[in-house]
Design brief:
The chain is mainly α. It is about 65% helix and about 10% strand. The chain has a single domain, classed as Winged helix-like DNA-binding domain superfamily/Winged helix DNA-binding domain (Arc Repressor Mutant, subunit A), CATH 1.10.10.10. A two-stranded antiparallel ribbon has the order 1-2.
């Protein structure tokens, strides 16, 4: 397992907020959105979304364009390149948690 795989595992399977971050990335992969649009799409609090976006940006898994409140987020090329691995981690997380 390389260092990026370990990062994916930590962010999306083993840390607090892993499922939320995975949901955010999944929605952003469909189309770029701002934090408010993400909050509405996922039925989550805006401040929660902003927190997880910050974590994802710090780890270079999402990028933004635009100014502060108008920032639109999208997944980075590395997420697209490793999407199969991202999905596999999600399946293992779900199996471990007893989710279908």
């Amino acid at each position: 397992m390389d260092s990026f795989s370990r990062l994916l595992w930590w962010l999306f399977a083993s840390s607090a907020g892993a499922r939320t971050r995975a949901e955010i990335v999944g929605v952003l992969r469909e189309e770029p959105r701002n934090a408010q649009q993400l909050a509405l799409a996922l039925g989550m609090d805006y401040s929660t979304i902003r927190h997880h976006l910050k974590v994802l940006q710090q780890n270079r898994l999402v990028e933004s364009s635009g100014d502060h409140y108008g920032q639109v987020y999208s997944v980075t090329a590395v997420v697209e390149e490793r999407w199969a691995e991202f999905e596999a981690i999600g399946r293992r997380r779900d199996a471990r948690e007893g989710r279908p």
